[in-house]
Amino acid sequence: MLLGYTITQWLFGILSFLSIMFGLMVVFSRNPVNSVLYLVLTFFCIAGHYLLLNAQFLAVVHIVVYAGAIMVLFLFVIMLMDLNHDNEPQKTWISKIIAGIAGGMLLCVLVGSLKGSEQLGISQYGSSQIGMVKNLGKVLFSEFLFPFEIASILLLAALVGSIMIGKKEIK
Amino acid sequence: MLAFIIYKLIICVAVFGLSLAVAAYSTLWERKLSALLQDRVGPDRAGPFGLLQPLADGGKMFFKEEIIPNVSNKFLFILGPSLVMLTALMTGAVIPWAKDAYVGGKLYSMQITDINIGILYLFGVVSVGVYGIMIGGWASNNKYALLGSMRASSQMISYEIAMGIAVIALIITSGGTLSLREIVEQQDAGFANIVWQPLGFIIFFVCALAETNRAPFDLPECEAELVGGYHTEYSSMKLGLFLFAEYINMFISSAVMAAFYFGGYNFPFAQELYDAMGLADGSKWIAIIGFGAYFTKIFLFISVFMWIRWTLPRFRYDQLMNLGWRILLPLSLLNLAITVVVEFFRGHITF
User: Fold this and answer.
1) What's the rounded mean pLDDT across residues A141-156?
2) How does residue A86 score in pLDDT terms, banded at 50, 70 and 90?
3) Which domain holds residue A167?
4) What is the pLDDT of residue B241?
């Protein structure tokens, strides 16, 4: 206990603050490479949240897949692109205002829907050990086998699609 | 609680010091071994048999002039090598160095932490290690450095896939555990995993060579094409950190290979030896002998890494990618399929 809060609560507060701060930095930093690096830090904070929820597997896989693979590819593309301020397309005032209004309206919709939604009930797998690899695997391959396989088909379709786009000519 | 923290602190510092010491003396051993292979003497000026050479090299690195290109992003330029070193040192945390032993009447584990996702932790740390090289290469603001870091990252991502699938086969053989300690311990009773996973070991070994950017996969720093690759612009100890991290990675991947496939601190007829010596479970001497056995294996692996470096020429980049995607990946999938069938007949998998 520290100042009336437990260590977990402190960790939650610090991680939440950091993840929101890094999330904002992603949007506000001028340099796209810095944006990507802040996004990586955001992912690390989210992985920390998973750890607090006792979901170790999810936390590590989140780091391996998102921070370790997907963001590396992002960084890869952005580093190879020539992103100078000179050839960056300049937006007019009107488009900026319109974008601002549209974004604000989206925010209103999201806040409204969150406010209106009922609080989710605690799931029946609410045991604190569900995040362990063994328990998660058991549930995924028995109870949720069908959605799990559907998700893999979705990934396969994306894979085939990207190969189709990537191929120069189709024989 | 305090005693626990002090014990963990001691073991952290011990693993840290061990990694650094082994990496330092690997540099000397690398030069000695290359001298042996090329019929030379090798470094022999600093101390007896050149034993002080690593200290001299380290001192030289620290005293060299440090140049930061003024067009580069200074923060990221410094972050690059730091991150590479950090992730290299973090991997040692989950490796079981020896059996638990009683010291002063209390049982101590010879491992920093035995988390039940040890293998995934290793993969996570290794995959974050790419950032150090990428950031360093990009922040140098140099075309060669950028190309080198691009090569490094694409190489590491490509080989991680085959490596991951080889490890999945290993996990099935070990009865579905992700904890390194349990993997080592289940090899205590039966054969080492190499008996059940010969193909998986070869795949893992090749991938480990590629992940540590060692020859013949050292294309990221390919000096014939790219000057120095991702560390072209680096000087002084920042260059030293990049080079040093490679040796730490080599040490850790040797340790991981020895633990995964060769039983870690176990060796044939270990129990018979301990019985003959009259050592009870949890004795200090068992831990020390096991640690010695483990280190012998690690040393052999490090030597093989070096032997390969001084024997084989470097791959061409397209050959590297072909090997990773067209040979190792299908082979690792085949290995996984074979493993599942074999384990089914061994009775480890039930439906």
Assistant:
1) 89
2) low
3) 129-171
4) 87
Domain boundaries, given as residue ranges, for chain B: 67-346
Indicate whether A69 belongs to any domain: yes
Look at B150 and A72 and tell me if their CB atoms are within 8 Å.
no
- Look at residue A126 and tell me whether its pLDDT is greater than 60: no
**B96-99 own/partner pairs: CB under 8 Å, 24+ apart:** B96/B180, B96/B181, B96/B184, B96/B259, B96/B264, B96/B265, B97/B15, B97/B265, B97/B291, B97/B294, B98/B265, B98/B287, B98/B288, B98/B290, B98/B291, B98/B294, B99/B265, B99/B282, B99/B286, B99/B287, B99/B290
CB pairs under 8 A between A and B: 64
Token representation of residue B308: 């390969």
A64 and B127 within 8 Å at the Cβ level: the answer is: yes
B121 touches chain A (CB under 8 A): yes
Pair A74, A1 in one domain: yes
Nearest CA in chain B to A41: B128
B97 has pLDDT over 90: no
| Same-domain pairing of A80 and A2 | yes
ipTM of predicted assembly, 2 dp: 0.79
CATH number of the domain where residue A73 is located: 1.20.120.1200
Confidence band, pLDDT 50/70/90 cuts, at residue A104: very high
Look at A133 and B135 and tell me if their CB atoms are within 8 Å: no
Q: Which residues in chain A touch residue B126, judged by CB atoms under 8 angstroms apart?
A: 68
Band of pLDDT at residue A67, cut at 50, 70 and 90 = confident
- The answer as to whether A124 is a domain residue is no
Full-model pTM: 0.85
**Which of A68, A80, A133 has its CB closest to that of B116?**
A133
